[in-house]
Design goal:
Elements (H helix, E strand, L loop, with lengths): L2 H68 L3 H10 L2 H15 L4 H8 L3 H11 L6
Length: 132
Amino acid sequence: MTPTVVLAIAAAGLAICALTAALIAIYVVRRWQARCDSLEVSLAAVRRELELVASISARTGRRVQRVEHKYSGVEERVDLVESRGVPASGSLDQAIDLARHGADSERLAQEFGLSSGEAELVARLHGRTKSA
C-alpha cells in the first residue's frame, strides 16, 4: 500500500465520520426544533389562559368595588340599629325570619322600618335563593 492509498482510505473514513456526524446533528436539531415548536404552542395556550384569568380577576375586582360602595354605609346602620336596644334588634331578627320565609326587600322595609339597602341586604343574606 502506498501512502497515497492510505491517505485516500483515511480521507474516506474521515468523510464517512463527518457525514455521520452531520446526519446526527441534523437529527438532533430537528428534534430540538420540534420540541421548541411544541413549547411555543404550549406557551401560547398559557398566555391565553393568563389573559382569561386576568380578565376574570379585573371583572371580579370591579364587582367587589361596586358591592363595597353599595353597602359602605351598612356598618354604620348596623351600629345604629344595635344602639337602639333590644326592640330594634328584635325587629331585625323578625325581618330575618320573614326573609327566610320568602319576603322580599320591599316588604321588609315597610314592615320593619329598614332602609331599602338594609332590607335588600337582609333579603339577600337570609332570603330564599331563586331557582331557575
